[in-house]
TrEMBL record:
Fe cation binds at H102, H104, H155. SUPFAM superfamilies: RmlC-like cupins. Belongs to the cysteine dioxygenase family. One of its GO terms (biological process) is L-cysteine catabolic process. There is a cross-link at C108-Y180 (3'-(S-cysteinyl)-tyrosine (Cys-Tyr)). This is Cysteine dioxygenase family protein. GO terms for molecular function: cysteine dioxygenase activity; ferrous iron binding.
């Protein structure tokens, strides 16, 4: 029986021709439909799983963390799936705080647990290599939304209030639960796909 030994480091990949490949180009629209359908299914299933127990989810954050930070919105890891399938974070938003414009490297689903958030939508302009504003939506307490990986759904999420009003007290803060299809160690680099907007 041959013995197996792990290689100390991966071998370099071979260079295949780049550019559109006919077989993959034909497959792309079908795969896109699958991923879009998956995002809608995730949103419905997340909503069903989370139910109306916002108080129990909010209780995961210590009172001091619920106040947020004047430096920017804060993210708190509250669960990491032991099989590395997903991670859950609670995000705390003070008035005027927002995420950068981004697509996603993985699927994402979120639920607004407290307050109201505004989601600014963008469409990808391939020729200009920019995200262009394309409307938006208020996300009230209880709203659940899901997006697939890629540039199909580019957005920025934030607290619609003005930073010069309110004092950052708990009543002024919005809190949302976010689920990402990555393990906890990849939260910092494996979720947001930052893009320029114009």
């Amino acid at each position: 029986m041959p013995s197996l030994h792990a290689e100390p480091k991966p071998r370099p990949s071979s260079s295949l021709p780049t550019g559109p490949q006919a077989a993959l180009s034909a497959l792309s629209p079908a795969l896109a439909r699958v991923f879009d359908d998956s995002a809608r299914t995730v949103a419905a299933q997340v909503q069903a799983c989370l139910g109306d127990d916002a108080d129990a989810l909010l209780a995961l954050l210590p009172a001091a963390a619920r106040a947020g930070s004047p430096e920017g919105y804060t993210r708190h890891l509250v669960y990491a799936d032991p099989m590395a399938r997903f991670s859950a974070m609670l995000l705390v938003w003070r008035p005027g705080q927002a995420s950068p414009v981004h697509g996603h490297r993985t699927w994402c689903a979120y639920r607004v647990l407290q307050g109201t958030l505004y989601e600014q939508h963008y469409r990808w302009d391939e020729a200009a290599q920019l995200a262009r504003p394309s409307g938006g939506a208020m996300r009230e307490t209880g709203a659940v939304f899901s997006v697939p990986a890629g540039l199909e759904h580019i957005h920025s999420l934030g607290h619609p209030g003005r930073a010069d009003r309110g004092d950052g007290a708990a009543a002024d803060v919005a809190i949302s639960l976010h689920l990402y299809g990555v393990e906890a160690a990849q939260i910092g680099t494996g979720v947001n796909l930052l893009v320029a907007a114009g």
